[in-house]
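Interim report to the steering committee. The following record documents the input for Erythrocyte band 7 integral membrane protein-like isoform X2 (172 residues).
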Amino acid sequence: MNAVIDPIVISDHAGHENEGTGFWGIILIFFSFIVFLVTFPWSILTSVKIVREHQRAIIFRLGKMTKEGVRGPGIYFILPCIDEFFRIEGRTTKASIRSEVLTKDFLTVGIDAAFCFKIENPVAVVFQVNNLANTLQMLARSTLGRLLGEKNPLRGSNGMGATGTRERRAGR
């Protein structure tokens, strides 16, 4: 009663001979190596960020702010495609706008103005402002328009209009 058990052979190749990498495999490895050599210096250059003395950095990893929060000056290594890096200027910065404003008496006045700003809370800027430059320009224009809209540039200090006649207020 001796039964003979045939050994079961399990093969990866399902009847194919072991061909090795083959011609197209070598070509694929060669091009992968070339792509690696071409992109490696670029990825290293884009991964190293330098934050100067007057700047602050905020780094998000996978969409969440890192536990360090706002970071001071130094050199930081950023993981490409995983980290998002924001550099915030800490010095007082000036900007200028050119605007045309409609005054209270319906005159169009062209104004060149300059304004200064300093960021006190970098986290609030990153979380609450989408485009800082555009937001500041709009804020300055609206403030300038409101201030000049309240004033009448043709009225002198004595209340006389440009024509020399006294202006009357409605209701008097």
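The chain has two domains: 22-88, 92-150. The committee is asked to note this result when reviewing the revised timeline.
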